[in-house]
Amino acid sequence: MQPPISVIIFVRNAASTIERALASVIEQQVPGLELIVLDAGSTDGTVEVIRRYAEHIVCGAVRPTAVRRRPSMKGWSARRAR
């Protein structure tokens, strides 16, 4: 059994482009694909577009507080330091 492939999409106010991005990932038809979408508090209808693809998304989260501060990359840095 192959390990899953995870695609993580970070998005904010991308209603005009997120549908194309989601469809592109889903059309790949990769076995074990995990699609994760993290929204940083969109106010332009992005969340509504994401909801239309809910059956394909393993994990989705809306984090309005992420808009106020710069994203932390500590997790990625720590992983590279191993």
Protein described:
By secondary structure, the protein is an alpha/beta fold. The protein has one domain. It is built from 3 helices and 3 strands; from the N terminus they run E-H-E-H-E-H. The protein has helices spanning 18-27, 46-52, 74-80, and strands spanning 5-11, 33-39, 57-62. A 3-stranded parallel sheet has the order 1-2-3, covered by helices on one side. Helix 2 (46-52) links the parallel strand 2 and strand 3 (57-62). The two termini are 26 Å apart.
Structure, briefly:
This protein is α/β, with parallel strands linked by helices and 82 residues long.
In what range is the share of β-strand residues? Answer: 15-25%
The biggest beta sheet reads:
3 strands, parallel
For the largest sheet, list the strands in their spatial order.
Answer: 1-2-3
Number of E strands: 3
Structural class: alpha/beta
Uncertain stretches of 5 or more adjacent residues: none
Tell me roughly what share of residues is in helical segments: 25-40%
Number of domains: 1
Q: What do the pLDDT scores average to?
A: 81
How many angstroms separate the termini?
Answer: 26 Å
Q: Radius of gyration, Cα only, in angstroms?
A: 14 Å
Shape: globular
Helix and strand element order: EHEHEH
Number of helices: 3
